[in-house]
């Protein structure tokens, strides 16, 4: 795993896999730099100093403290996702960027143009003694629609796919276990199969446009499309107990998740 430091209504009948019932809502402007009254229309190509987090007041390349963990999550447009996680007690650092593709040092325009294979993601560094991996994943599942394939709402493209990129075996085990559990709950409510990509993190590329970091703090009325399904995930404490001691990436499913439909990791890639 590498990290680049450089430049709730109840649904109706089940929809086909990869689809969801959604009311119309605004779409993120495609391939445009985040609007700001002082922003230049031309992207700065030169290397810039590492930005400081606008909320936590620490550099984005601050080393992960001993005992802390990091996980990388894709839930559609990354602006709202980052805000969700910087608001959580126990989260040490967040930053937006790209993962899951093949192009090094991608720009925002390249990614939203669909030429890189990357997803828009948020890197979350957290203290597991204050917020567990299962609590992080509960927020992940409940705050977007993981059945939509290569889109979230009106934001369409594989850069908006649902994804979990893990950095430890225990995270990978928890991601797989919670996916089965939440998939069962979605099925009861009439949703299709989960399309979330789950894989170990290969490389995280920080978004080079500084304004995109903590964007909704800098532009409070900016675009945010983060929406959940209204279906609640299992309590994180119960899932944490079920996962205790399972660090080989193959935990036994809890009784409530037995019989869930199998979902291929990377189905949305």
From TrEMBL:
Family annotation (InterPro entries): Met_Sox_Rdtase_MsrA_dom, Met_Sox_Rdtase_MsrA_sf, MsrA_MetSO_reductase
Enzyme Commission identifier(s): 1.8.4.11
Positions of the UniProt region annotated as Disordered: 1-63, 245-269
One Pfam family of this chain: PMSR
Domain Peptide methionine sulphoxide reductase MsrA: 70-224
Gene3D superfamilies with a match to the protein in the record: Peptide methionine sulphoxide reductase MsrA (3.30.1060.10)
Record field: catalytic activity: L-methionyl-[protein] + [thioredoxin]-disulfide + H2O = L-methionyl-(S)-S-oxide-[protein] + [thioredoxin]-dithiol; [thioredoxin]-disulfide + L-methionine + H2O = L-methionine (S)-S-oxide + [thioredoxin]-dithiol
Active-site feature positions: 77
GO biological process: cellular response to oxidative stress
Keyword annotations: Oxidoreductase
Biased composition (Low complexity): 256-269
GO terms assigned for molecular function: L-methionine:thioredoxin-disulfide S-oxidoreductase activity; peptide-methionine (S)-S-oxide reductase activity
Single GO cellular component term: cytoplasm
PANTHER family the record matches: MITOCHONDRIAL PEPTIDE METHIONINE SULFOXIDE REDUCTASE
Family membership: Belongs to the MsrA Met sulfoxide reductase family.
Function text: Has an important function as a repair enzyme for proteins that have been inactivated by oxidation. Catalyzes the reversible oxidation-reduction of methionine sulfoxide in proteins to methionine.
Protein name: Peptide methionine sulfoxide reductase MsrA
Name of the gene this protein is made from: msrA
């Amino acid at each position: 795993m590498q990290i680049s430091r450089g430049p709730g209504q109840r649904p109706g009948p089940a929809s086909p896999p990869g689809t969801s019932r959604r009311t119309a809502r605004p779409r993120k402007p495609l391939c445009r730099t985040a609007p700001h009254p002082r922003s230049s229309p031309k992207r700065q190509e030169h290397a810039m100093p590492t930005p400081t987090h606008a909320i936590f007041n620490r550099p984005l390349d601050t080393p992960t403290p001993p005992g802390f963990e990091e996980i990388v999550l894709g839930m559609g447009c990354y602006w709202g996702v980052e805000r969700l996680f910087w608001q959580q007690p126990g989260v040490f650092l967040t930053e937006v960027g790209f993962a899951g593709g093949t192009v090094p040092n991608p720009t925002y325009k390249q990614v939203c143009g669909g030429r890189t294979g990357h997803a828009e993601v948020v890197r979350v560094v957290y203290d597991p003694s204050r917020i567990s991996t299962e609590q992080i994943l509960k927020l992940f599942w409940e705050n977007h629609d993981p059945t939509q394939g290569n889109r979230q709402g009106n934001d369409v493209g594989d850069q908006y796919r649902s994804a979990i990129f893990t950095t430890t075996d225990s995270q990978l085990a928890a991601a797989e276990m919670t996916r089965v559990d939440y998939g069962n709950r979605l099925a009861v409510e009439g949703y299709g199969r989960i399309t979330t990509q789950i894989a170990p993190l290969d490389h995280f590329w920080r978004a080079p446009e500084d304004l995109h970091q903590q964007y909704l703090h800098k532009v409070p009325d900016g675009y945010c499309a983060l929406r959940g399904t209204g279906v609640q995930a299992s309590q994180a404490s119960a899932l944490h107990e079920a996962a205790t001691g399972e660090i080989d990436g193959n935990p036994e499913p809890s009784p409530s998740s037995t019989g869930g439909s199998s979902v291929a990791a990377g189905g949305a890639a």
